[in-house]
Amino acid sequence: MAFKLSFTTLLMAGLAAHAQTPAALKDVFKGYFHVGAALNQAQFEDRDARGGIIVRTQFDTISPENVLKWESVHPRPDAYAFDAPDKYVAFGEKNHMFIVGHTLVWHSQVPAWVFQNAKGEPLDRDGLLQRLHDHIRTVVGRYKGRIGGWDVVNEALNEDGTMRQTPWLKIIGEDYLLKAFEYAHEADPKAELYYNDYSVENQAKRNGAVELIKKLKAGGAAVTAIGLQGHDKMEWPTIEQQDATILAFQQLGIKVNITELDVDVLPAASQQRTADVGLSVEAHAKLNPYAGGLPDTVQQALARRYGDLFAVFCKYRGTVSRVTFWGVTDGDSWLNNWPVRGRTSYPLLFDRQGQPKPAFQAVIRAARQGSVK
Ligand code: G3I
Questions:
Q1: Reported pTM
Q2: Cα 40 to ligand 1 centre (Å)
Q3: CB atoms within 10 A of CB 32
Q4: Residue ranges of domains in the chain, CATH in brackets
Q5: What is the pLDDT of residue 2?
């Protein structure tokens, strides 16, 4: 406790030293949107004092980085693992946060048995629909009225805007998305329901997502918002792409959540502009240039980049309901291990010591400038 108090004092002093403004994102953005982070298990189990304090003082919404993915929560046909998700939800409730569920239907992190019958043969449409229904009823139903919004379907589109050929699509057909939304709505009629994807800022994929949302709505799906993951680079998406993307979904009458925000400052390891978890590239020293620390020029450029992005999010207050960072401090980020293992990445607002970076101040300034417009 003594450590926690002194760490809180240090953190707040660090925040105040950098800013003359109120130093909590959740307060600064009140009236704009919720601000949050994806939590790892140590953070919601109070085993990460540094991260936990940042989460409690800065954020008013949380997402589970991994514990509600199918392979984690439902590893075997007859076994659900609710211990970790229960703790995640309890953490959010204790801290009065908007709690997000991630994710019900994805092509990744799904055990092979999900798509097979008892003999190990491919399951048929009815069998898989039954399994999907049971999974959603059980998981969403358990947290009914407590988890406020669910990523119902994650990453169903290819880069060119066509439907990704997943086992869900191949076995059930295109209406697997509609069915997933129907089951989720049935399990918790008051929960917000989202379609979540990356690279939607690119025109072709955006067009595909617009069509997909239109089809979902036409089919009666209770879709509240699109989740733009926001795994951004320094030069991508352009501010124009970001703006046009939010506008496109605003025009469809749904909300927009920025769900997995980070900005990668490291050299591109691949030609592919993607956040596909399946991508893997061999380590090389030149791909890890800031192992000893981030040069100030890059630090400042990252701050400007974050400021520019938040200026767009603020412009669309009322449409943008939530901005969630994919991690708390730089040391927590998946980008330290993707697509190259063992890099030193700097994509978030808090450094490895839990101190706010210049990007934090830039984001705060964006809120202040946005509010006087
Ligand atoms: O839990 C096991 C552990 O038991 C094992 O010893 C260790 C060995 O590598 O792996 C651990 O699991 C890892 C898990 O993260 C928890 O750390 C998996 O290998 C690793 O693949 C997994 O990566 C996650 C990835 O999704 C795949 O589920 C990342 O943490 C997570 O940040 C990332 O998040 C995704 C979103 O869900 C969807 N959008 C893209 C985003 C970034 O890839």
A1: 0.94
A2: 10
A3: 22
A4: 23-266+279-371 (3.20.20.80)
A5: 41
